[in-house]
Amino acid sequence: MTFVYQRRYRGPARAVLLDWAGTTMDFGCVAPAVVFVKVFERAGVPITMQEARAPMGAHKRVHIQKITELESVRSRWRAAHGRPPDDGDVTRMFADFVPLQLDCLSEYSQLIPGTLDVIAALRARGMKIGSTTGYLREMMAINLRDAKQQGYEPDATVCASDVPAGRPYPFMCLQNVITLQVSPVEACIKIDDTVPGVEEGLNAGMWTIGLAISGNEVGLSLAEWNALSASEQQPRRERAYDRLRMAGAHHVVDTIADVLPCIDDIEARLARGERP
Ligand SMILES: [Mg+2]
To answer: Cystine design at 14: which of 98, 187, 215, 230 (Cβ 3.0–4.6 Å)?
Structure first.
C-alpha cells in the first residue's frame, strides 16, 4: 500500500492535571525541602538546601534514597559513619520524615496566587481538574483540607503511594484519566514545577506546562522572590526556564497564574491535529 492513514484527535482539551507543592500551593515548594534537611541533620549528615531539592517530585521515600545517592552526600556520610548509606538508613530516615512532614504541612499550605481564578476559568471551559503529588495519602489529607478551606477542590487526587511507582512514571496521570473518565490522553495537560513532574506528563502521552518561578527550580517563597532585584531574579528565572524546557515541557511560564494562554495554544495545536 502506497499511503498510510493516521487517526488524530482534534477535539478540545478535557482535563488539566495539577501538581500540588510549588504548583497550586506552597510557593517555592518549601515544606518538603525543610523536612529533608532536618531528617539528614538528625542522621548526622547535614545537607544543603540544594541537595535536599535535587530529586524533588519523586515519591518521598525515593527522594530520600536519591539524596543518599548524591556523591557529595555519600562522601560526607562515609566520613561521619565510616560506611556508605544503605537501604536501612533510607528506611529509618523515611520513618523519621513522615511525622515531621505531617507536623509542618499546614504552615506551607497557602494557595499560590492565581490558582482559584485559573481553576474557575478552566471549569468554565468544561475541563476537569485532576491532580498528582509525591506526597503520601496521609499528607494529602492535610493539604486537601487546607485547599478546600481556601476554595480549591480538584475532582481527583492521586498520590505516589496510590500507584506502583511515582514520577517520572506516568501512573499517577493515568489513574487520573481513569478516575476523571477523560479520553484520549492527548486531551489532558499536566502542569508541574519539577523535571520529573514534566516527564510524568510526557510519559503519559500528555501536553505539559512547566512552572518556573513558583516551584522547586527557583526554590524561594513568594516573599523571598519578591525581595530580589530584577537583576537577581533574572539568572534564576533563566536557569529554571532552561531546565523545564530541556525536560521537554511544551510551555514554560512563571506560575499557574500564567497558564491560560498556553491552554489556548495547546487547543489550537490539537485543532490542527498535532500531538503532544
Ligand atoms: Mg511540585
So the answer is: 187
